[in-house]
Every structure is written in C-alpha cells, then in structure tokens.
Design goal:
Layout: H1 3-22, H2 31-47, E1 71-73, E2 83-84, H3 87-98, E3 107-113, E4 116-123, E5 126-132, E6 138-140, H4 143-146, E7 163-171, H5 174-186, H6 195-202, H7 208-213, E8 217-224, H8 233-242, E9 252-254, H9 257-270, E10 278-285, H10 288-294, E11 304-308, E12 312-325, E13 331-342, E14 345-351, H11 355-361, E15 368-373, E16 380-384, H12 427-438, H13 450-458, H14 473-476, H15 484-496, H16 502-508, H17 516-526, H18 529-533, H19 537-542, H20 548-559, H21 561-573, H22 581-585, E17 595-599, H23 607-616, E18 620-621, E19 631-634, H24 640-649, E20 652-654, H25 656-663
Parallel strand pairs: 2-11, 17-18, 17-19, 19-20
Antiparallel strand pairs: 1-6, 3-9, 3-10, 4-5, 4-7, 7-8, 10-11, 12-13, 12-15, 13-14, 15-16
Helix pairs in contact: 1-2, 12-13, 16-17
The structure holds adenosine monophosphate (AMP) and zinc ion.
Adenosine monophosphate binds near residues 221, 222 and 306.
Length: about 675
C-alpha cells in the first residue's frame, strides 16, 4: 500500500467511526484506539503535505486561528419564523394558508432547537463553507470553527446533489454543558449561564481548538437549493440523514392541526427528557410545491410557524409604571419591578404593551405581578396575583397627555397604542427619528452618537435629519465636551453618508412599518423616491410582499408637506434618493412596464431565479393577480383559482419557456 492509499484508508476509517459515535450515538472503537489512528494519520499528513485535504478528520481538533470573520452573502436568505402560542393561533394559521393553496395540507412537526442557527454549503459532497445567520442576507464565515464539530460531516455519504445549502442549529447538549461547567467551577472560574448562549458564543471564538473542546452538536432541519430530488419536508429530513447529517428522529407528519396539537402537547410535557434545549415546535407545510405556492412575507415563510412552549415565569412587585415615547410617537407603558431572577437573568423592567393590556389584567402599582420571558428581549407581564392585592389600591388611570410635551394623546381606530400627535415638536420623537437616521443599519454616520444627537437637538442646532447636512464645525464646537477633532469627524461622517445607497436611505427616513427588508423591496421595485412617492395605496399592495398596513403608511408619509420638504432638502444635499447607475447598469429594460405573477412549479429555473430575472430585466413581480398584471408565468400545478382569475380578467398565461424567450 502506498502512502496515499494509507492516508485515504485511515481517513475513511476514522470518518466512519466518527459518524457512528457522534451521529448515530453508537461507538465502534475505543477512544484510545481512535486517538492512536488519528495520530498516525496526522504524522503521515505532516510528512506528506502534498496529500492535504481540507476535510481530513485531523482538522477536527482545530488549531487554526481566525482573526476576523469575513462576511459572506447567503445564496438563499435565512428567514425568521412567525410565532404562535395557542391552538387558536395554529387554527388561524391554517385558515390563512388554506386560502392560498389548493388541496389537502399535511404538516411536518419538528422540535425547535434552541441554539445558534447555521447555514452549511456543500459542493460535490464536501463542506464548502459554514455561515452564521447574521442579518439573514449576510452572515459570518465560521467554517474553520464549524469543522471541529464532530457531528457535522465534512464529506457526505450516498447520492447527494452537486451543490446545496443545509440549515441547522448548533446546540450544546445539557450533558456536555454541565461537564464544562463542573470543570470551570473546579478551576475557580464562573460557570456559563445557559447552553444556548454558550453555543452561540462558541461560533465566534478566534481559536478553533477552543471550539473543538466544547461538546457542540449540530441538528439539521432544512435543505435548500436548485432542483433538488425532494418533494416534501419530511423527505428532506430523511435525505439529510442518509447523507450523514444528524437529524433527530422525533419529527412526525401530521394530517391535521389537531394532530399537530397532539405533538405539541406531548413534547411540552416531555421536553425535559430531551438531551438538548428546545423552546417549541416548528410546524411546516410538508409538501414543497405547496410551500413554493405559499412563499414568504417580508420576514418569514408563510409555510411554517413556530409554536412556543410556555416560558418560565416569576412573580414580583410592580413598583411604578412609566411611559416611553418612541420615535414614531407611540406610547409604551413600562413596568418598573422589584428585581427578580428569571431564566438566568435579573429582571427589573417589563413591557406592559398598551392601555388595553393594563386594563385586561387590571394591572396596578403595588400589585404582585407574574412576569414571563419568552423569545423577546424585554419580559412581559402576564397576570396579577389578585389574592395578594393591597386593600387600598386603585385601578391604573392611563395617561391622557404626552409625558414629554404634554400634548393630548390620540388613538386611531384599530391601533392598540396611543400616539403623541405632536410629531414635529415632541422632543423624544425629534431625537428618536434622528437617532434612527444615523444608526448603523441606516445611514451609519460615523462620529455621531445617540447622545450627541440629543445634545444637538437640545441646543437648538438641529430639528430633523436634513438639518444635519447644514451643520458646520464652528456650530458644534461650543457644545459641551466637543473637541475639535470630534467636530471634524462628525461633519466628515455626515458628508460620507451621501454615499449610502438608496435602499438604506429609505430605511433611514423612518416611514412607519418600513423596516430594512421592506425598504430593500420598495427600492428595488420603485427605484427612486419619486417613484415611490407617486405610488397609490393599491399599487403598493400589489407589490410582492407588501401588505395594506405598509401601503397605507407609505402613502400617509408622502401626503405630509413637512416630509416632502425634508426629502427635497436631502435631495439638494446630494443624498442618494434613487438606485445608483451601477445598480442599474447590470439590468436591462426588456420587461419595463410589465408586471408578472408567478404560480406553480418550474423545471428549468426556480421561482427565485424567475423573480430575479424579472427584476433584472426591469419588470415587476406581484403576489396576486389583478387588472394591473400583464403576465402570469404558469408552471406545473398552478393553483386552479389563480388560473380562473387570470382567465376571467384576460391576462396572458405563459410558460417558463415563453418567459425565457422574452428575455433572451
Ligand atoms: P426565530 O429566531 O425565533 O425567528 O426562530 C427562527 C429560528 O428557529 C431559525 O432561525 C432556526 O435557527 C431556529 N430553529 C430551531 N429549530 C428549527 C426547526 N426545526 N426548523 C426551523 N427552524 C428552527
Ligand atoms: Zn409628545
């Protein structure tokens, strides 16, 4: 046997033992013998670097250091999940989706593993890269660290697609977590708080050999790629298992929401018996064609929903209710609590949401309240211990006037929250809007922080974000603690913000409900602020992923003189209010003026590729058929209701081939 064969045999043998132990939980070699063989392989590799393989089992022990984690773009966006908390929520979800797809719907029920999500890309059967979720569009390249996790295959088994992404959750099972903590305590160090934070913190450690020491595990739940040999979610779990991934066998197909509830109830009761942390169940439409048909909202797939197990609760004294005014004028009541330990942290504040919430539970100062911590950052109050109420307590009278500017509050029909209508003069609103404008994900103005914004407003130097562009060094130098260097930096930061692309400017100007994702969508679709400003509510609703709430908010924004004035000023300073030439140049206008609706399954291109092709060629994608639709691109199994509607209105129904011809 030559050296190359020896190396290959050892690699194969070790990979198999590793798989048996970490994925199947079934050891086929003693630790000692495994170590000997690993050392043997390492020696051979060291003396024969020509046979290096980035996926060799010897790399599992780590050693490589990552100084900076590069940001990479996900091929497919990593969405979030919508949440549900009750049987009714699940039934409502079923009602919603039944309107959008035809036929019976079956569901896959899986546990919701509580750790850090990861996206793994495999090419030709080898792990190519591992990327954190990040903002859903881009994440950090943590491949080196991920390779040390033994249950993640570096080389796949069986017959697998050429290239695909697989998503899962990096978790730290209780057993390993407790062992780690015991060791830390015996070494006089502070124990880690909980497995989840420890798992997610591990991904960004610089020294991969430190990661290798942590008993991390990776549980996989989602395969995504082009033209995959898979028809259902359940099948994809089975395939993933075949290819060598660790996929818990707890998942089940349910044929109705009541079967889903059975699964949920069972695991709510038995989750303590599981070796790792879970915080709920994820329910997914099983059929992938139906999934495609349902698509996504701006944040999450319509075809999946998380059911959150009841969170941990604690009770404590409500000391005081204070009222915060947000940048949109929304009033949020907040409870100041006697500090109490809850789910590993000390809780001092809890959100009370709105007036209705306070009334519903009849929440009063001095009450003993129940506090719950779900997925949210701020815990919430979920009830009052009425038996312990003091005799002379009186119901909470909700404020009628803004705590900051004393304007009478308003509450619009259908809105849960009260608003301070004094948009232009109410200090927290003025400051909040500017703070939002300069924030990292918006205009990212270097050299200007939240505190300085307050200072500038309080000193009468600015009243809105357009005023920033008129500031001079000599204006701001007299401010408290403002050094010349900081003043120059601030002005330079404001100047640099003129290069921020339109989609982020659109997010920055703070139209209610226009978050980062929606801003991206709208800027792609309308290409300029003028285009957006002249869109009607109905036109907006027809845009893919835009709903009526957002549409109304956009129209309201542009109907105000003050807002148009500020936008015009931004324009005059040179802020980007349209898509740049560069973004436009890799586009054609072959489909200009045409709106498309996509329905069904396609053979040559995926639905996503179709969307991209339409947008790249100047066309628009809409989610529902209306008189404004020009073409419906129909694939196999197009929804019959959609077809009837298109035929009734007389819209051209074309095939993917017809479409590809249009742009060729
Ligand atoms: P959230 O972060 O609350 O929006 O929930 C979405 C996250 O749940 C995803 O990003 C995944 O990391 C995680 N997750 C855990 N288990 C599953 C599962 N079985 N299917 C889908 N997502 C899951
Ligand atoms: Zn006010």
């Amino acid at each position: 046997m030559n050296i190359k064969e020896q190396i290959n045999n050892l690699r194969e043998e070790l990979i198999q033992h590793n798989y048996n132990y970490y994925v199947l939980d079934n050891a086929t070699i003693s630790d000692y013998d495994f170590d000997i063989k690993l050392k043997q392989l390492k020696r051979l590799e060291d003396t024969h670097p020509e046979f290096y393989d980035a996926n060799s089992p010897t790399l599992r022990v780590g050693g490589a250091i990552t100084k900076n984690f590069n940001s990479l773009t996900h091929d497919y966006r990593m969405y979030s999940l919508s949440n549900s908390y009750s049987k009714e929520d699940l039934e409502d979800w079923e009602t919603r989706i039944k309107k959008l797809v035809d036929g019976e719907i079956a569901y896959t029920c899986e546990l919701k593993y509580d750790g850090a999500s990861i996206s793994l890309t495999y090419e030709n059967g080898k792990l190519l890269r591992a990327v954190t979720r990040g903002d859903g569009y881009h994440g950090d390249d943590v491949t080196t660290n991920i390779k040390t996790i033994n249950s993640i295959p570096l080389v796949l088994k069986g017959t697998y697609p050429n290239r695909f992404d697989i998503r899962g959750e990096i978790v730290l099972p209780f057993k390993g977590f407790n062992k780690m903590n015991k060791e830390r305590i015996s070494e006089g160090e502070k124990p880690y708080r909980n497995p989840r934070n420890t798992a997610s913190g591990s991904l960004k450690l610089q020294d991969s050999s430190e990661v290798a020491k942590r008993p991390l595990d990776c549980l996989l739940y989602h395969i995504i790629g082009e033209r995959l040999p898979i028809n259902t979610q359940f099948e994809s779990l089975e395939k993933a298992r075949e290819w060598g991934f660790k996929v818990p066998s707890i998942a089940k197909v349910a044929n109705s929401i009541s079967e889903v509830i059975e699964f949920v109830d069972y695991w709510d009761e038995h989750r303590n018996e599981l070796p790792y942390e879970t915080d709920g169940v994820v329910i997914k439409v099983n059929n992938l064609f139906q999934q495609e048909e349902l698509g996504y909202t701006a944040k999450a797939p319509r075809w999946a929903i998380a059911y959150k197990f009841k969170a941990e609760k604690a009770s404590t004294v409500l000391k005081e209710i204070i009222y915060q005014v947000g940048r949109t004028g929304a009033i949020t009541p907040v409870a100041n609590l006697k500090p109490v330990a809850l789910a590993g942290t000390i809780v001092k504040r809890a959100s009370l949401h709105n007036a209705d919430q306070i009334e519903k539970f009849d929440i009063r100062v001095d009450d003993i309240v129940f506090v719950e911590k779900g997925g949210e950052i701020i815990p919430k109050i979920v009830g009052v211990d009425l038996e312990k109420r003091t005799k002379n307590s009186s119901p909470t009278a909700y404020i009628t006037h803004c705590p900051k500017c004393n304007t009478k509050l308003q509450r619009q029909e259908g809105d849960a929250k009260h608003f301070c209508p004094n948009t232009d003069r109410c200090p927290p609103q003025i400051i909040g809007r500017i703070q939002h404008y300069i924030s990292r994900k918006a205009m990212d103005i270097d050299g200007l922080g939240s505190e300085t914004v307050s200072l500038l407003v309080e000193n009468g130097l600015i009243q809105n974000y357009a005023d920033l562009y008129e500031l001079t060094v000599s204006d701001i130098l007299p401010l408290d603690r403002m050094a010349e260097k900081s003043a120059i930096n601030l002005i330079a930061g404001v100047e640099a913000s003129k290069n921020i692309p339109f989609e982020r400017v659109l997010f920055a100007i703070g139209i209610r409900y226009v978050g980062e994702t929606v801003a991206k969508k709208l800027s792609k679709h309308y290409k300029s602020i003028n285009g957006l400003a002249s869109a009607s509510e109905q036109e907006l609703i027809n845009v893919d992923e835009i709903g009526d709430v957002i549409a109304k908010s956009v129209v309201d924004f542009f109907s105000l003189f003050e807002n148009n004035d500020i936008i015009n000023r931004l324009k005059s300073y040179g802020v980007q209010l349209e898509i740049s030439e560069k973004e436009l140049s890799n586009q054609t206008n072959k489909l200009e003026g045409n709106t498309f609706v996509i329905s069904g399954i396609f053979i040559k291109v995926s639905r996503n590729e179709l969307k991209q092709l339409i947008e790249q060629n100047g066309g628009k994608v809409s989610s529902s058929i209306s008189k404004k639709t020009n073409f419906v691109i129909a694939g196999d199994k197009m929804g019959p209701s959609k077809r009837t509607k298109a035929e009734d209105i007389g819209i051209a129904i074309i095939t993917e081939d017809d479409f590809l011809l249009m742009i060729s």
